[in-house]
Write a structure and sequence with these properties.
The complex is a heterodimer of chains A (about 110) and B (about 110). In chain A, the strands form 2 sheets. In chain A, strands 2, 4, 5, 6, 9, 10 and 11 form a 7-stranded mixed sheet that branches. A 4-stranded antiparallel sheet of chain A has the order 1-3-8-7, with no helix packed on it. With about 110 residues, chain A is mainly beta. Chain A is built from no helices and 11 strands. Chain B contains no helices and 11 strands. In chain B, strands 2, 4, 5, 9, 10 and 11 form a 6-stranded mixed sheet that branches. Classes of the chains: A mainly beta (about 110), B mainly beta (about 110). At the A-B interface, β4, β5, β9 and β10 of A face β5, β9 and β10 of B.
Chain lengths: ~110, ~110
């Protein structure tokens, strides 16, 4: 158990809809990173938040957006869902941006 | 850009030793991580190498050669519960970015 929690655990949406995924970081951690993991692939970096500011972004379109709150929890929002967005979405928190990242259990999103 | 290669699958016998290799070509490098991921679960942190050499932690060891862009994870006294995917990840360098770039993972099957 890493102390990182995510909600919901599973989600089914249809194409064109919008989704919000949530992540609570481990106590004392000020950095949250989000990853997308397709079946049989390694996680792909979406973006990182450090002290409520975006601190790096991967190769994802602008319809993927995020937020970090003063308590360092975070949200990932995806607009205009596409079938290829079906994946496991992982968040990871770290004590500071350069420290080891610890992963939550993930949210499995299915887009129909 | 970042390119990380690791074997797709490996099989080893319970009680044996297995070495999982990872080669990388990256535009920046802060360090290299190994994570273990059981099917349907989140990645869990195994090891971190930033300097050349071997890091030992119980049954698991990890080696890094920065000049060769090469790392390996060594698992000794294999147990059935070690059956999992092993992910090699490079932490990028550069201002404001501590993202992890993952390989596709090596699926290890431990057989009796």
């Amino acid at each position: 158990e890493t102390g990182v929690t995510q909600s919901p655990t599973h989600l089914i949406k249809t194409r064109g809809q919008q989704v919000t995924l949530r992540c609570s970081s481990q106590s004392g951690h000020n950095t949250v990173s989000w990853y997308q993991q397709a079946l049989g692939q390694g996680p792909q970096f979406i973006f990182q938040y450090y002290r409520e500011e975006e601190n790096g972004r991967g190769n994802f379109p602008p319809r993927f957006s995020g937020l970090q709150f003063p308590n360092y929890s975070s949200e990932l929002n995806v607009n205009a869902l596409e079938l290829d967005d079906s994946a496991l979405y992982l968040c990871a928190s770290s004590f500071n941006r350069e420290e080891t990242q610890y992963f939550g259990p993930g949210t499995r999103l299915l887009v129909l | 850009g970042q390119n990380i290669d690791q074997p797709t699958e490996m099989t080893a016998t319970e009680g044996a030793i297995v070495q999982i290799n990872c080669t990388y070509q990256t535009s920046g490098f802060n360090g290299l991580f190994w994570y273990q991921q059981h099917a349907g679960e989140a990645p869990t942190f195994l090891s971190y190498n930033v300097l050349d050499g071997l890091e030992e932690k119980g049954r698991f060891s990890s080696f890094l050669s920065r000049s060769k862009g090469y790392s390996y994870l060594l698992l000794k006294e294999l147990q059935m519960k070690d059956s999992a995917s092993y992910l090699c990840a490079v932490e990028g360098a550069g201002a404001g970015s501590y993202q992890l770039t993952f390989g596709k993972g090596t699926k290890l099957s431990v057989i009796p």
